[in-house]
Design a protein that fits this description.
This protein is mainly alpha-helical. The chain has 2 domains: 5-73; 88-161, Arc Repressor Mutant, subunit A, CATH 1.10.10.10. The chain is 58% helix and 4% strand. It contains 6 helices and 2 strands; from the N terminus they run αααααββα. It has helices spanning 5-23, 33-65, 88-99, 106-117, 126-144, 163-170; strands at residues 147-150, 156-159. A hairpin with a 5-residue loop joins strand 1 and strand 2 (156-159). The protein is elongated and about 65 Å long.
Length: 179
């Protein structure tokens, strides 16, 4: 018999909550003064008690679907916190392309994003992730008509020149003044 979807979803939430419970003590936030530190510690302890109560409630709910379910067998899902706001990668990609003097590949954009975003620790796979960010942003830009995709291998991208800017750049000031 197939496993009930409710049990699968609850177990997934249980694993994510276990992961959050494990990393909550490592949560770093700028706090001023001893009173601020104590208040932050008390808030973390309150959140941990709530998480434990939620974990127990989820375990009871899962056991309703699967009486022989073992909570010890569930592996916690650790999620990494976001260090940047949503859209920062896209904005940085456009800034890199705006500064470029010639079309750029995904890898050249990724290398420029390292400097643009101020990434100091180039861990394993970071450049690959940035190349994926560049590729996705460039593809969306092509669909929106803001970025031009150049043919050939490797594929290169550049910002399209806006019509009004192109017209302004090509227009010559006239010597005659009309009154």
């Amino acid at each position: 018999m197939a496993r009930p979807i409710a049990a699968t979803q609850l177990e997934n939430k249980y694993a994510r909550l276990m992961g959050a419970y494990q990393v909550i003590d490592h949560e770093v936030e700028p706090v001023m003064g001893m009173v601020g530190i104590i208040e932050k510690q008390l808030e973390i302890e309150r959140r941990k008690r709530k998480m434990l109560a939620d974990l127990q409630a989820m375990a009871v709910a899962i056991k309703q679907f699967e009486p022989d379910w073992d909570s010890e067998a569930v592996k916690p899902i650790l999620t990494r916190p976001r260090y940047r706001k949503f859209g920062d990668g896209a904005k940085a990609t456009y800034r890199v392309l705006r500064k470029a003097t010639e079309p750029m590949t995904n890898w050249s954009i990724a290398k420029a994003l390292v400097h643009e975003l101020g990434i100091a620790d180039l861990g394993e796979g970071t450049l690959q992730q940035l190349a994926s960010v560049a590729y996705g942003n460039c593809q969306r830009g092509v669909e929106r008509g803001m970025i031009e995709r150049h043919e050939g291998r490797p594929i290169k991208y550049s910002l399209k020149q806006r019509p009004r800017r192109a017209a302004a750049a090509n227009s010559q000031p006239s010597a005659e003044i009309q009154l």
